[in-house]
Each structure stands twice: as C-alpha cells, then as structure tokens.
Protein: MBL fold metallo-hydrolase
Organism: Streptomyces chitinivorans
Amino acid sequence: METDWEELSPGVVRRRMPGWDETVGAVAGESGTLVVDTGATLGDGARVRRHLHERFGLPVTHVALTHPHFDHVLGASAFAGVEVYGAVGIEDLLVHSKDELRQDAVRHGVDPREAAEAVDVLVHPHHRVAGELTVRLGGREALLANVGPAHTAHDLAVVVPGVLGGPDVVFCGDLVEESGEPQAGPDSHPVHWPAALDRLLALGGEDARYVPGHGAVVDAAFVRAQRDALAERFGTA
C-alpha cells in the first residue's frame, strides 16, 4: 500500500507529488472517494487511483480540478468513468487549449510523449461549478466553491467539514502556496486574488487546515498573511 499520503482529518488525505510538488488530495465516504487534482501525467493519475483504492477499499467516484494547469489536470486522463468537476469555463479552456497545455507541460519537464498521451485522452469536467456545489459521498460531504478568478480564471476550492473531532480541511489549489511565492502567470487575475483568499478564509474559518497547491499544510494566519502580501505586491491593498 502507498505510504506517502498525509492524513489531514479522518478520511481526508493528501500527497505531495514528486517532480512539481503539486498536491493531490482525497476525501473518502461510504460510497466512494473524491480526488482533488490528479497530478501531471497519465501515470501519476493511474497511481493515485490505485493507491486510494488500496487505502480506502473504495472506487474513485468524483474528481475536482482546482485549476487548469498541467501539473493539476493531466492525470485526469486516468479517471475515465468518474464524475469530474471544475469551475465554469475550465472545460472550454481544456478543449480549445490542448496544444498550449502540452507545450507548457513539456517546457516544465514532462516527457513529450507522456504529455502528448495525457492531452490526447484528457477527461474534461462534466459538471461546471458557478457558485457552490455539494458532493455527497455517503456519510461524507465536500463543498466545491468557485472562488476565482485569481490564480487563473477558473479557481475551485474544496472544503471538507471535519468529522470525529477532526478539523475542517480546505484544498486551495494554487491560490495558496507554501513552498514558494504564489505564481502569477499570464492567465492570472491578480487584482481579484486577495478577495479570493478572503473567500477561502470565510469558507474555512480560523481553525481549518488549509492545503496549498504546493508545499506544507498551513493555517488561517498564513493565508491571511499571503493575502496581505499579494495585495501589496499587486497594489490592491
């Protein structure tokens, strides 16, 4: 059984993937498992799917994509037959920007053949989240919230209420980064980013565990400090 998964709360885990240090998360209920992001290649996604089945003894039934960057979505190719969720607009971007997605993956070090394979069979979101949507997993729920635009035009957060005394967990995607400064590429909307972090804080509250797209799990104080730093950096204070 895969042992590199960190338990955040009962039935809620995450793994920092090798290579790009992107987080893949999972929430297990009685009827299935929700995966949050899928890694950078078809092989990554297949391993995630297998490891979680071994860990929980449940099928992966749902996938939530926090944003449309290669290291978070290309593993979705391994999740055929699974219900896939993303912020409104992400499906059009993935359909019409396949070549740019492949090129970005290769530019960051993905093997060109692996990148092409993943893009060719990429599973697109079936469910578009405009505001908030609750996924029910049998005795467990996860709230999907469209909190962008910010890091990209299509940022989705996943909020998992705690059970058995465990804390609430907020999967932030790259709205929050701990291992380095948040990356604002050409597809970012920096003027809206601080407000998106305010939304995360309102959804999770002071006692939640916030899971960044890259790096160690942080608390509300870290998210608040990063919000203030982004506001100063982009002149939106």
Notes: The helical segments are 42-56, 70-73, 90-96, 98-107, 112-120, 193-204, 220-233. The chain has seven helices and twelve strands. The CA atoms of residues 40 and 74 lie 5 Å apart.
